[in-house]
Amino acid sequence: MSATFAAWLAMLNNFAIEQAFFTGAEIGILQSLREIPGFLAFTAVFILLVLTEQVFALISLCILSIGVAITGLFPSIYGLYATTVLMSIGFHYYETVNTSLSLQWFNKNETAEKLGKLMSIKSAASLVCYGLIWLGFSFFSTSYQFLYLFFGLSGLILTIWLFMAMPKFEVKHTQHKKIILRKRYSLYYLLTFLSGARRQIFVVFAGFLMVDKFGYSVQQITLLYIINHLINFFLAPKIGAWIGKVGERKALTLEYTGLVIVFVGYAVVESADIAAMLYVIDHLFFAMAIALKTYFQKIADPKDIASNSAVSFSINHIAAVVIPASFGVLWLVDNSLVFYAGALIAVASLCASQFIKMNEKHISFAHAVAVKNK
Fold first, then answer.
1. Which H or E element spans position 365?
2. Rounded to the nearest 5 degrees, what angle is found at the Cα of 257, between the Cα atoms of 253 and 263?
3. How far apart are CA 372 and CA 95, in angstroms?
4. How far apart are CA 52 and CA 49, in angstroms?
5. Helix-strand-coil percent breakdown of the chain, rounded to 5?
6. What span, in angstroms and rounded, lies between the C-alpha atoms of 236 and 247?
7. DSSP state, residue 48
8. What's the burial of 362, exposed, middle or buried (CB within 10 Å: 0-12/13-18/19+)?
């Protein structure tokens, strides 16, 4: 997943601007379309009635790979819209199942550290991808079409190998096969919603700022991604272990405080070098998102994990469907307004995260009472 999606993302802004002639409005619409499958991720619950999570994950990876492979063959506005939606269906269903299985397979006392190690592995795969893209454009005058096809087909071949070579892993608790919303998860739902809004500012507009305002080439954008993932490769496991020690509330407080500063920085920056530094710091904070997953694992009934992973993924994408298109129009007025809005979202997240400790105690008590009554 990481290598395939990294290829799609690394070349997207330059491909969209250079060959599909996108402006901020079109890139916003594209990203909104990309997030619709994420918004519909709750439907994974119904698919799991007929497929196991592991098989569903592999099918999703096939769809993702095919979508990436054909992206370069349709260098037009509607062509890029269509291939993006196909790629996104595979990506979002896979990520839904990935989150669910991670929380089921890992013990609570090791989850944060192991999720950090998984992020390190993802970064290693992405680094290979970015290195090949950089070499392709810097020394071999490679086309977008060839590289999208190369990475997409490579992902498809690897997925077929996974299907044939990997054993079936068992889960400890039979999962509910219906949509479940529980009041005691309400704080988690709110933080997930705000996280989805924050993610769009980075994924859609921070990268677009580099290309649109500062004129970064595909090689320069790729180098930025390489720096980001090199840092993640070494630091993500350490950040995961640190979260396991200090707890979710402190980790999220640090993340959201830093994001307020970063987003305001995006709004006022006039230097390409400072903008790049902000971009690297912004990406580093994504490792802190481990805290949100471990918080849910601690408060959840083990049988709710698959269902609520799908539901929370949909909640995460409510803002993701609306923000790219609406903020794309806002971008045309003044791009700094997009990032000031992102700072406000980070402030809201910071305020909500302060209720984690109190809320967790309340949930634990409520859950104990429910079990006793049952």
1. helix 356-373
2. 140
3. 35
4. 8
5. 85, 0, 15
6. 16
7. T
8. middle
**How far is 72 from 8, CA to CA, in rounded Å?**
10
Distance of CA 93 to the CA centre of its chain: 12
pLDDT digit string, tens, across residues 147-177 = 999 999 999 999 999 999 888 877 666 655 6
Residue type, 185: Y
Q: How does pLDDT run across 107-163, given as a tens digit for each residue?
A: 777 887 888 888 888 888 988 888 898 888 888 888 999 999 999 999 999 999 999
What is the pTM for the complete model shown?
0.73
Going by C-alpha positions, the residue among 65, 332, 300 that lies closest to residue 180 is 300
Say how far apart CA 298 and CA 106 lie, in whole Å. Answer: 12
Q: How far is CA 178 from CA 60, 175, 300, 363, in A?
A: 20, 9, 16, 22
Count CB-CB contacts under 10 A for residue 169.
11
Question: Which positions of the chain have pLDDT values less than 70?
Answer: 171-180, 358-374
Task: Kindly give the residue spans of alpha helices, DSSP state H, lying in 40-185.
Answer: 44-47, 53-69, 77-105, 111-139, 144-165
Distance CA 50, CA 227 (A): 42
CB of 35 closer than 8 Å to CB of 324: yes
Q: Give the Cα separation of 91 and 138 in Å (integer).
A: 29
Q: Which two tokens stand for residue 69?
A: 């492979």
